[in-house]
Amino acid sequence: KVNIELLKDDKIRKKYQEQLISLPTYKDTKIHSTEECYIELITKIKRAANRTVRKSKIPSTPRRRKAFERLKAAIKVSKKHPDMQNYKYRLGNRRQEFNQAVKEHKEKEISNFFKNLNDFDVGQRIRKTHKYLKGFRKQKQKKRADISAKTWERILKESEGPGIDYCLNHDYTPLIQPPTDEEIKDIIKTSCCGKSAGPDRIFMEYLKHADDDTIKTLIEIIQKGFTENKLPSDWMKSTQIPIPKKANASDADHFRRISLCNVVYKIYAKWMAMQLTKYAGEPDLYQAAFTNSRSTDDHIFVVRRVMEEHWNAGKDLYILALDIKKAFDTVKVQNLREILLSLNVPSRLVDRVIACIKDEMTRVLWDNQLSSEIKRGKGIKQGCPISPILFNYIMQDVIRNVAEKIPEMKLMNLNCLKIPLLLAFADDIIIIAKSKEELEKLLKELVEQLSIVGLELNYDKCQLLLRFPNNKTPKPQDIKLNGRQYKVCDKIRYLGVCLTDTLDRKSTNRSRCVSAYKTSRVVIEFCKKFKPSWDIGKLIYKTVLSPAITYGNKAAVLTKKSRIGMANYEKLILRNIFNNCKKPLNLKFNARKLLDGKTVNRRVRVGRINYYGHILRRENNHPIKLAYKMRFETKKEGRPSLTWKDSLNNDLNRYNNIDTEEWKQLAKDRDKLKSKAEEIYKETNSEISDGQTSEEEDDRQKPKYKHWKRKLG
């Protein structure tokens, strides 16, 4: 076992590099095969790592090591003279000194962990922090999943199938050059640390801190593998780890199999992914997953804007959220060659991509047992850098075929956003239609095209939402579409947010607050056990809990009642953390002052203004820009409901000295808009109301803690 964290120490890192230099390796990679060079290089790196970064029971930091040595000496003397009180007191002092050193080191380690989280996006922050804090909560007996290793082996054999062939007619124009030294070094530099190793047990940190000669040899191996299209057999090996999708998973379907690939292969695959994007371009705008400058917020914004404008116009909507069953594990790759060639990807590059998935050997690790190895014939591995891009192109081909047979569905409207509308985030698809017939027609064609590439819907997880603004009669419990019954829901979850069949703003906003409240229980257990300083407690709240509340709200409409609810939930969570942290005696609880003005409501306002700039910077045919401009001339009877534009105008009006045209000019520069929007944190106006009232109005909103605790259980 090795301790990768030791490589952060300059002395250990220098010793590791010296070991790499001293160990022999092939000086000329051209004479030997790629397989031989790779095995020699990996063996060299493993030997150097085992000699320098092996785990030790002795504390590694100087202060803890010194305190540990003094404690050992005191124990030794105390055993020699058990009757002398002086040595007993000294032993007690040494124990106290060592415990204090360990405690301070742990606090410093926790502080560094949360500071380094800023390098990741919101989703990764929440996952990493939840995993980290789980070690501090009360350990309970887990319900063991009654799944045998033979079950996983049987499931794995379902992935066997016919292979995929290389291109028959090669067109070497343009000629694809092998990766350059700078490209490989840049990929190594920007790759994330702290990831699990593949079957060869090589970590990314080994390559990040390797000497120049080792990196040079690695680059030559990658370049030679690309030129000859003969990759080392170890690159094709992967180990699948079943990860539970929910707590107390009891069935194999409740697990997601993540493939651990070898690090050197991942570097090669990342470069291949860059080349694919260079020639084939980004996926169509209906797809928001695994692409630059697109996120879940874009699809959430489009869906909500369509829903609110149709509601105000009195128009009916049928909204169907679809889930594909085991999409990555079951998708057929036999048509991948034709799909890539149709996207103008050179045949030389297509052959290299096919080589990455043609001879893949995989096995499952379950309960410390490895299944037998099989050659995969269908599906692509989750965990490979090139897999998400290939899946996007396969789904793009499916959606384009659907659009060809249904002319009413326009993927690229230049003037306005029209219904029916189809949006996808990886394998999460949502369809919006004006009538049952329109939805049925689109769904039938989509199911047929998905079956061609080996995909089928998970009908148990598909959700149907009916929004009828003018119809007050009870909705049916289910609707039959293409011979199958779909359950009609009063609310559905799409990309982590709640969509309702009425103007129920409370349910939409409360789901995020309740989710953050449940997450805070783990944080509070951690604070009770470790008693960190208030600075660390505040850092945890800002890093994890505040984004959990505000997620999706910058694309949502928040009424005054919703903002009061968010502020009350924030005070409830923050007070529980505050009461279980070490703090100065004169520090009193005041959410606004403790957070330096960065409360959830102000964060939402700043996020909404920044997202407004994001919309204006998009091209004219982008779905979010078309959704922003969407407007019906006819309106239904009665008072119109609040829209996202109304919420945005209320935010912009808080700046009295800036008009609409100035905001549009500011939006062109992302940094200027961000700095201007963050002035909200410094103002003394109310964060709840839309007017210019003082903060005293917010303090009058007393949270009903007992009522919430009883309601949340």
Count of alpha and pi helical runs: 27
* Number of structurally distinct domains: 3
Low-confidence stretches: 705-713
Percentage of residues in DSSP E strands: 5-15%
Estimate percent helicity.
40-55%
What is the total tally of β strands? 13
Largest sheet: 6 strands, mixed
Strand neighbour order, sheet with most strands? 7-8-3-9-11-10
Question: Between the first and last Cα atoms, what is the distance in angstroms?
Answer: 43 Å
Mean pLDDT: 83
Structural class by secondary-structure content: alpha+beta
How is this structure best described in words?
This protein has 713 residues and is an alpha+beta fold. The chain folds into three domains: 149-283 and 329-375, no CATH class; 296-327 and 387-497, Alpha-Beta Plaits; 505-712, no CATH class. It contains 27 helices and 13 strands. The chain has helices spanning 10-22, 34-52, 62-80, 85-116, 122-133, 149-157, 181-190, 204-208, 212-228, 263-280, 296-313, 327-330, 336-342, 347-358, 387-405, 436-452, 505-530, 534-550, 560-579, 591-594, 600-616, 623-629, 644-652, 660-667, 670-677, 696-699, 705-712, and strands spanning 237-244, 255-261, 317-323, 361-366, 369-370, 374-375, 421-425, 428-433, 463-467, 478-481, 484-489, 491-494, 497-500. The chain has a six-stranded mixed sheet, with helices on both faces. Strands 1, 2, 4, 5 and 6 form a five-stranded mixed sheet that branches. The relative contact order is 0.09.
